[in-house]
Design goal:
The strands form 5 sheets. This protein has a 6-stranded mixed sheet, covered by helices on one side. Strands 7-14-15-17-21 form a 5-stranded mixed β-barrel. Strands 3-4-5 form a 3-stranded antiparallel sheet. Helices cover 21% and strands 35% of the residues. 39% of the residues are buried. Strand 1 and strand 2 form a beta hairpin.
């Protein structure tokens, strides 16, 4: 509930990828002066590297993608502290006993890519993050709530975040129990992110598709989801933290449709996996920690529909709202199976939320859930910086509860 930590840091990573005698060599360093060491590392690893089955991109025209706002770095340290204090004060004014942790961060990232085929790209990105989490402890209970935003612009208004947290605190004032049976479930945007996204991101990864590990590897052009479901990957959204003019291999960014009216439309590829698949890169080659590029999602966007969250609730006689599922990714991700404890969720009875559930688990399969969608919400929102999604209404999910 008080200012605890202020940190400023800077890092510099240089990575070199070479093709030597038909094989890929690689080196990475945090010392930009050690050029010879970087070269020696790349030459040495090329002896054992994977075969190079692709060509590096030549000089390319990139889309105009706005990712930098100088106003981000103009926000003073004092203003950042006040934002954090305001977040905590507003939530604690509603619930004095809650213990809060707020975080306010700003950063800039500069990227420069160049290759021996005259390909070159340079861009700078600004990111501002604002968030709060809270824990409310009573004699036999712990309640966790939280919310945050991430943008390329400064975030100087806290009301949207605190209103969301206070709304959850109001819903959670009473406790309720559910029977152990199959029940209709509404996944809020945070619920979609914590339950359904890890299997989907793996399924559309071109590397796993090539290896045959993805359950939709041979389903291109087939309808396996609800015809109301549309999903795309887009790294060209202006001023979004994951947007960029090109990927980490210098391939132009784009919007890639993945699911269109329930039909599998594309997979996500980098240069290497695209070449092996006999197609072109989708601009999803990403280096994580300076490592070799691999296909990775940019920003997943699930298209909103026209059903309100209140309409979904009013349609339920008895059901469950999932805001956060803990441990969902511990199941068989590649098969789409999930099972986890409802860390934050609510019982719906006769068309209204009556209280928070405890000691409740749900299990199911992502592909079945997304095939049998009853309704898609009109309440799309950003969850972190990787997903924009509305609420999703599932007609039946296995629920197990001590209650």
């Amino acid at each position: 509930n008080r200012l605890k930590h202020i940190q400023s840091k800077q890092s510099h990573t240089v990575a070199l990828r070479i093709i030597r005698e038909g094989r890929i060599g690689y080196g990475v360093s945090t010392n930009p002066e050690d050029i010879q060491g970087l070269i020696d590392m790349a030459v040495t690893t090329a002896e054992f590297g994977m075969p190079a089955v692709f060509e590096l991109p030549s000089l390319t025209a990139y889309p105009q993608v706005d990712t930098y706002d100088s106003a981000v770095m103009s926000v003073s340290l004092e203003e950042m502290v006040k934002l954090g204090e305001k977040l905590i004060a507003t939530v604690r004014e509603h619930t004095p006993d809650i213990v809060c942790e707020a975080e306010v961060t700003k950063k800039t990232i500069s990227v420069s890519i160049i290759n021996s085929r005259k390909g070159q790209a340079d861009y700078t990105k600004s990111i501002f993050n604002l968030g709060i989490s809270g824990t409310l402890v009573s004699e036999n209970d712990m309640l966790f709530v939280g919310e945050g935003e991430s943008r390329c612009h400064p975030i100087l208004e806290t009301k949207t975040i605190t209103d969301t947290v206070i709304n959850h605190l109001n819903w959670a004032k009473n406790q309720a129990s559910l029977p152990s049976q199959s029940l209709p479930v509404i996944f809020t945007p945070n619920g979609v992110a914590s339950t359904l996204m890890a299997p989907l991101m793996a399924a559309f990864n071109g590397k796993l598709v090539l290896e045959g590990a993805s359950p939709i590897a041979n389903k291109l052009g087939e309808q396996i989801f609800s015809q109301d479901l549309w999903l795309s990957d887009d790294t060209t959204i202006p001023y979004h933290p994951r947007s960029r003019p090109c990927d980490d291999e210098g391939v132009a960014s784009r919007r890639t449709p993945l699911i269109e009216a329930g039909t599998i439309a594309n997979f996500l590829y980098d240069l290497r996996t695209a070449s092996l698949a006999g197609t072109e890169s989708t601009g999803n080659g990403s280096r994580h920690g300076g490592g070799l590029p691999n296909p990775s999602p940019g920003t997943f966007i699930i298209q909103a529909a026209n059903t309100t969250f209140d309409d979904m609730i009013s349609n339920m006689k008895k059901g469950l709202v999932i805001e956060y599922l803990m441990g969902a990714s511990q199941g068989n991700i590649l098969g789409g199976d999930f099972s986890g404890n409802v860390l934050l969720g609510y019982k719906v009875e006769n068309g209204r939320i009556v209280g928070r559930v405890k000691d409740t688990m749900v299990s199911g399969n992502v592909y079945q859930v997304l095939k049998d969608i009853t309704a898609i919400g009109n309440d799309a929102k950003w969850v972190g910086d990787f997903l924009n999604t509305p609420s999703l209404y599932c007609p039946s999910l296995s629920v197990a509860s001590k209650g």
